[in-house]
Amino acid sequence: MAAARCCSGGLLQLGGLRRAGSQGDTAPQSQGLGYGRGAREMKVTLRRHVRGGVLAAALVVALLALAACGNGAGNGEAGSSGAGANKGNGGGTDSQTAAAEEASGESRDLTIRIGYQKYGTINILKADGGLDKRLKDERNITVEWIEFPGGPQLLEALNVGSLDIGHTGEAPPIFAQAAGAPLVYLAHEPESPRSEGIIVPKDSNIQSVADLKGKTVVLNKGSNVHYLLVKQLEKADVAYEDVEVKFLPPADARAAFERGSVDAWVIWDPFLAAAETSTEGRVIADGTGVVANHEFYLATRAFAEQHPDLVEILLEEADRIDTWSQDNTQELAELLSPQLGIDVASLVLAAERRTYGVTPITEELVAAQQSIADTFHELGLIPQAIDIREAILK
After folding, report:
1. Are 190 and 294 contacting, i.e. CB atoms less than 8 angstroms apart?
2. Smallest Cα–Cα separation from 374: which of 177, 241, 181, 180?
3. Is the Cβ–Cβ distance between 75 and 18 less than 8 Å?
4. Which end of the chain has the least Cβ crowding within 10 Å, N or C?
């Protein structure tokens, strides 16, 4: 539901969406790289999913809030570290801000918490700085960026209320939904099956996935590569139980791989690319023909329903930086290298085999996610069956 505060608190958000701003130059820091077709499609999708139900509910809440104002409920709310916290103290200026927000449907004067990993479009947005600038200039909104080693850890933070928005692959939101996380899917990137793989040491006698039977494989539990391993073993007619699977985050898994304490590592870019270039490891299989490997944009349901205008801005900026990234892989690698601590050559390799473009959630995508969820349930990897539709904005 849209949030409502009394006159002193300042906000009666009625859910209107803003259109994108200007178009401009080609430098990655510029806000005017141009918004692609994906972002324009997302506006339509967000309006359909959010506007109807939220607007009706918000009108009721607004009337109640106005009544409370008339009854003298004039004390300001306590502060909050999450999105939706008005930074004012209940004075006249805040009341004027509230009236402007009510009229425009714009979220203002907040701090939003965005979780990111060591790669993906949101990571590029952080390095680019355009989202921060646009939100600060247009809405006086600050972004708090929080790094995580993988998608499962990111969604754990979202589940306990420490994040508003984040990005992961296909598997983490399934595990998180099964654990009761209040998440919703916002959009996704196109299929990128070559951006994850199973890598073995260069001198290993393992030549194919079939050779993994009886071997030790390491991966980040509940991540996209968990599903990649499941499907590759299935394709090779190797039972999941016939492989010893160890769970470690990427940094620890890399150390185990280099020590030789595991036989194979299932990992995603840019860690996969870095292992290829620095250890000369061999990729015996990637996701091609087996898994899609989508990157998803996710949020708490409360954030997505209360701030559809901010969701729209985020997806516009993501589509902008995607368009630039696809055409400038060398510059992208040079931009990210200092932030990630990964060499440029590895990042170029990762960037050139990745796909780009913000895409709306479709029926086909929901069905694909449901298939992954059902597979995990059948293997006993999640405790109960889930319905992906429950995590889709209505």
Report:
1. yes
2. 177
3. no
4. C
Return the bridge partners of 116, or none: 147
Identity of the amino acid at 184: V
Of 393, 360, 385, 358, nearest to 174 by C-alpha is: 385
Which residues are within 8 A (CB) of 113 and not within 5 positions of it... i.e. 6 or more apart?
Answer: 81, 82, 83, 143, 144, 146, 162, 163, 164, 165
Cβ neighbour number for residue 116 with a 10 Å cutoff: 22
Kindly list the averaged pLDDT for each block of 10 residues, start to end, along the chain of length 394.
Answer: 35 31 36 42 46 39 40 36 42 46 70 94 94 96 95 95 96 96 97 97 97 97 94 97 96 96 97 96 97 97 97 97 97 94 96 96 97 95 96 90
How is residue 317 written in tokens? 């900026």
Phi, psi values for residue 214, rounded to 5°: 80, 0
What amino acid is encoded at 311 in this protein? V
The amino acid at residue 381 is: L
> pLDDT at position 79, please?
34
What pairing do the DSSP bridges indicate for beta strands 216-219 and 264-268? parallel
Q: Give the global pTM.
A: 0.74
pLDDT score for 101:
52
For residue 51, the 8-state DSSP code is I
CB under 8 Å to 77, separation ≥6 — which residues?
5, 9, 86
Q: Which of 8, 355, 326, 307 is nearest to 143 (CA)?
A: 307
Compute φ and ψ for 54, nearest 5 degrees: -65, -40
Residues with Cβ within 8 Å of 327's Cβ and at least 6 positions away in sequence, in order, are none
